[in-house]
Specification:
Layout lengths: L2 E4 L2 E7 L6 H6 L1 H8 L6 E6 L2 E10 L8 E2 L12 E6 L4 E4 L6 E4 L6 H12 L5 E7 L15 E3 L2 H24 L13 E7 L1 H7 L1 H13 L5 E7 L11 H5 L2 E4 L5 H7 L19 E5 L8 E6 L2 H11 L8 H8 L15 H10 L6 E2 H8 L3 H13 L4 E4 L2 E3 L1
Parallel strand pairs: 5-15, 8-12, 8-13, 9-10, 9-11, 11-12
Antiparallel strand pairs: 1-2, 2-4, 3-4, 6-7, 6-15, 13-14, 14-15, 16-18, 17-18
Helix pairs in contact: 4-6, 4-10
The structure holds adenosine-5'-triphosphate.
């Protein structure tokens, strides 16, 4: 191994023995630290992206994360710009792409979730091509300081349900408009901005507003192309809160701060990440995190910038008057008075079965969505989602525009 000395310590490329993997080296890190006589946490191992049998070992004499790193202020001017959220151990900037991506920020209490959320929000408020909505079921404690930059803030389960249902209506309208003029994706501009819905404590939403979770899952599955994105934070990444992984699998940006238990790493990031070196249970200060996103597939420790309450106040005040409105089409979809929030009273006892039977017995020209809503007693979103799932499984097909058959 040949070593290169840099500002922070030294690094060298390691060639593994035949059959050995980087996970084997990661598992030996404490022993390597002991043999080298370094402080615990000084040795880092990174996979060589080009060769499974090679890795880079870094030994950090100086820790750039030793102290809080002040936030330099917003750098993004469009949702298309990656957002600078902090620095890696080698002092390079952590840049997170957010356009057409949902994001999940997870970590135990006091790990710095609000900090990361605030860095991202501090940048998003400076982007004239994003409308921000917020859901904060802790009485608005976290998001209220940003209220002047949020087009809407929901602080009760009912408001959250309404908001997410509106988001689904918007994404459906946008998808429909895109299919009419053959555009594949919604390109955010200040006239037709993206919609980012910030949800602080997703588990709280799952506990108190199960209907809203259905809408959130719809947004997670179908929102990206039409620039309706979720930015969620959670302290409790339980299977239940994460919809058994359904939500998480749609979140292509995952920020994992310190977790209490090793298995939480896999709940926030993914299976196998712990043994691949994503040791979020060993992060030792608030704001430290691992990032999994496009261009970030190695377990590199990072630390978020520290955003003070003063930063939040100043930034919100600076950008409050520059926030865009939704485009007319999306606004109309959200305002639609006829859209019922509650399921109709005559919901079938087994809506799934009722749907399948109706499709099986449909006339040759198929049944319309309205007829399927009538038969199942379920809302449009549910019917639409189930039809997509049945179509993907090959048990339902669209005979003509908006008409379905088994
Ligand atoms: N990037 C950071 N650098 C240094 N200190 C930080 C950083 N982020 C947060 N802190 C400090 O850690 C503490 C907890 O941060 P924060 O409120 O963001 O955590 P949290 O995970 O959101 O907590 P909770 O689960 O209670 O909402 C705060 O006192 C804050 O000053």
């Amino acid at each position: 191994m040949s070593a290169v000395v840099d500002t922070w310590g030294w690094r060298g490329r390691v060639k593994l023995r035949p059959g050995q993997s980087v996970a084997d080296v990661v598992a030996r890190v404490p022993a390597i630290e002991s043999a080298l006589g370094t402080r615990p946490g000084a040795v880092r191992v990174e996979q060589d992206p080009a060769h499974a049998g090679r890795c880079t070992m870094r030994v950090l004499a100086v820790d750039p994360h030793a102290g809080a790193i002040p936030w330099p202020g917003p750098t993004a001017r469009s949702l298309a710009d990656p957002i600078d959220i902090g620095v890696f151990e080698d002092a390079t900037t952590v840049q997170v792409p957010l356009l057409r991506r949902h994001a999940l920020i997870g970590g135990t209490t006091d790990s710095g979730k609000s900090g990361v959320l605030n860095v991202i929000l501090g940048n998003l408020v400076a982007c004239p091509d994003v409308v921000l909505w917020g859901i904060d079921l802790k009485g608005g404690m976290e998001l209220r300081p940003w209220v002047s930059c949020l087009a809407r803030l929901a602080t009760t389960p009912d408001e959250a349900n309404r908001m997410l249902s509106d988001a689904v209506a918007i994404l459906e309208t946008r998808a429909h408009a895109a299919s009419q003029d053959n555009t594949r994706v919604w390109e955010p501009t200040s006239q037709s901005p993206a919609l980012v819905i910030v949800i602080d404590e997703y588990a709280e939403l799952a506990d108190t507003a199960p209907d809203a979770v259905g809408h959130a899952e719809s947004v997670a599955r179908r929102g990206r192309a039409v620039a309706v994105d979720l930015l969620t934070a959670t302290q409790r990444p339980t299977q239940r809160a994460m919809g058994g992984g359904a939500i998480r699998s749609q979140m292509s940006v995952r920020v994992c701060l310190r977790v209490r238990e090793r298995r939480d790493v896999e709940l926030i990031l993914d299976k196998g990440m712990l043994s691949a070196g994503w040791h979020a249970h060993t992060l030792d200060a608030p704001g430290k995190f691992y990032l999994l996103a496009d261009g970030h597939n190695q377990p590199r420790r990072a630390r978020a910038y520290l955003v003070t309450d003063e930063h939040v106040r100043e930034t919100a005040a600076q950008y409050a008057s520059t926030r865009p409105d939704l485009d007319a089409l999306s606004q109309a979809a959200a305002d639609q008075p006829s859209r019922a929030l509650e399921p109709p009273p005559n919901q079938a006892s087994d809506p799934e079965q009722a749907l399948r039977t109706a499709l099986d017995q449909a006339p040759d020209e198929g049944l319309s969505i309205a007829e399927l809503i009538d038969t199942t007693g379920m809302r449009r979103t549910w019917v639409y989602d189930r039809l997509q799932a049945l179509a993907a499984a090959g048990t339902a097909r669209q005979v003509s525009r908006g008409r379905w058959h088994a």
